[in-house]
């Protein structure tokens, strides 16, 4: 309710600003006071403005952009025709939506609202719409990909869907995996203490922790941004099931950052340019929201390239070149995962700040995984976990698959006692999936 009241006042304010600017333009009058009453507490709209530290002019632009969604009738005054030419006033900018005869504001409309005929103010206001400005850099506003004009001022004034959700409802827009958004959010119920890693791996992971905690101090207070850059790239490599994905997910959980997974083996598009366009949406969202990006099966696209022998090879190299450039320029933590480090070009490996090996667990680590994996309700008195850990070389994922299966078999017997023969049978099945016989 509080947010609704604030939005109503904001719309009334921008309506008055438009009316005053139009009146000033036609009658050559001085503008009225542009101040408005604004409640800064208990409102997701107000909090959004506070958190982004929007200037007064940036607030005007945002309010104007919201009229399209909340009160498009406010914009009807811009449909006024120039009687001399029997056409719209070009200085108002805007587009007409043919489907419902409504005025859609453009950047030129916002410039008219901010500056009118004052060219000095116009040029100053124009800086607010560059791609590096706060409104676009942080993703508050976005360009329409379908109608992106080569002339900046003719672009629609558009609030991004994610910002619109925050402004209206105070919650982030969820991003579901689709062809147009080829990434899915990772989550886990596990905690760091559930993760079993070698001391070597954990030591190298500490480098990522240090970056996430102290990067702003290094870049801003120490002035190192020009020499080291804002982004951080890490390669996780090792056999399947050794904890690469879980580690990336737990990093996000630890630092309250969303982690989005992109499976590169699924990304090759038959339409040239489609993969790049769809991935760009992921990168932009990640930069706006400070996500961690996790590229799985990375060697499927970044493996050592061969000579171009077909159009498919050329297309793959185009995708690789785009991703290399985009990963290089991205200011987020980016993690690439692969089974083998040797699949990568040496030149590409030099781009990583950290290269972290995830080996298969040894006997001691396997024992810890067995002990941590079972439910407290499971009775393990018939098991020799030390012998199982010594005899069977399994990854962490293998062990959890075995535990899941034998636990279900035990429940199906209406029991809680885990039997040794069930463990052996489940291990054989797990090995059989890998083409091995135990």
The averaged pLDDT comes out at: 86
The tally of domains stands at 3
The dominant shape is elongated
Q: Architecture of the largest domain in CATH? A: 3-Layer(aba) Sandwich
Concise account of the structure shown:
By secondary structure, the protein is α/β, with parallel strands linked by helices. Helix content is 48%, strand content 10%.
What this model shows, in words?
The chain is α/β, with parallel strands linked by helices. The protein contains 18 helices and 12 strands. The protein has helices spanning 2-27, 44-52, 56-70, 107-115, 119-126, 134-137, 161-169, 199-221, 225-228, 244-254, 274-289, 299-302, 311-329, 346-349, 363-373, 385-391, 396-412, 420-433, and strands at residues 81-82, 87-88, 95-97, 102-104, 141-142, 158-159, 184-186, 232-237, 259-263, 292-296, 333-338, 354-357. The strands form 4 sheets. A 6-stranded mixed β-sheet has the order 7-9-10-11-8-12, covered by helices on one side. Strand 1 (81-82) and strand 2 (87-88) form a beta hairpin. The longest helix has 26 residues, at 2-27. The model is unreliable at 306-310 (pLDDT under 50).
């Amino acid at each position: 309710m509080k947010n609704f009241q604030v939005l109503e006042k904001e719309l009334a304010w921008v309506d008055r600003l438009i009316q005053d600017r139009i009146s000033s333009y036609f009658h050559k009058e001085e503008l009225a006071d542009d101040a408005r009453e604004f409640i800064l507490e208990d409102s997701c709209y107000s909090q959004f403005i506070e958190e982004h530290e929007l200037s007064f002019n940036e607030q005007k632009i945002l309010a104007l952009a919201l009229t399209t969604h909340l009160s498009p009738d406010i914009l009807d005054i811009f449909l006024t025709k120039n009687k001399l030419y029997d056409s719209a006033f070009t200085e108002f900018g805007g587009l007409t939506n043919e489907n419902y005869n409504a005025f859609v504001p453009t950047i030129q409309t916002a410039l008219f609202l901010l500056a009118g005929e004052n060219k000095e103010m116009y040029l100053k206001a124009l800086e607010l719409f560059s791609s590096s400005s706060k409104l676009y850099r942080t993703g508050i506003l976005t360009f329409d990909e379908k109608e992106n004009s080569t002339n900046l001022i003719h672009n629609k004034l558009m609030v991004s869907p994610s910002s619109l959700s925050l402004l209206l409802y105070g919650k982030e827009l969820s991003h579901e995996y689709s062809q147009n958004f080829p990434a899915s959010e990772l989550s886990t119920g596990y905690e760091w203490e559930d993760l079993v890693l070698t001391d070597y791996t954990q030591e190298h992971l500490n480098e990522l922790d240090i970056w996430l905690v102290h990067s702003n101090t290094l870049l801003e207070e120490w002035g190192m941004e020009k020499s080291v850059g804002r982004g951080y790239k890490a390669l996780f490599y090792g056999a399947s099931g050794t904890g690469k994905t879980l580690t990336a997910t737990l990093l996000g959980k630890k630092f309250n950052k969303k982690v989005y997974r992109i499976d590169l083996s699924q990304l090759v598009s038959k339409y040239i340019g489609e993969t790049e366009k769809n991935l760009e949406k992921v990168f932009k969202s990640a930069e706006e929201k400070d996500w961690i990006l996790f590229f799985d099966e990375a060697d499927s696209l970044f493996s050592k390239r061969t000579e171009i022998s077909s159009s498919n090879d050329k297309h793959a190299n185009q995708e690789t070149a785009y991703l290399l450039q985009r990963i290089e320029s991205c200011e987020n933590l980016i993690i690439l995962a692969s089974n083998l480090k040797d699949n990568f070009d040496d030149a590409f490996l030099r781009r990583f700040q950290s290269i972290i090996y995830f080996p298969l667990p040894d006997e001691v680590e396997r024992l810890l995984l067995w002990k941590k994996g079972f439910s407290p309700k499971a009775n393990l008195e018939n098991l020799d976990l030390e012998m199982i850990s010594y005899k069977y070389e399994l990854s962490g994922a293998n062990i959890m698959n075995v535990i899941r299966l034998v636990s279900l078999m035990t429940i199906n017997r209406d029991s809680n006692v885990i039997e040794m023969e069930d463990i052996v049978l489940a291990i054989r099945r797990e090995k059989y999936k890998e083409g091995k016989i135990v």
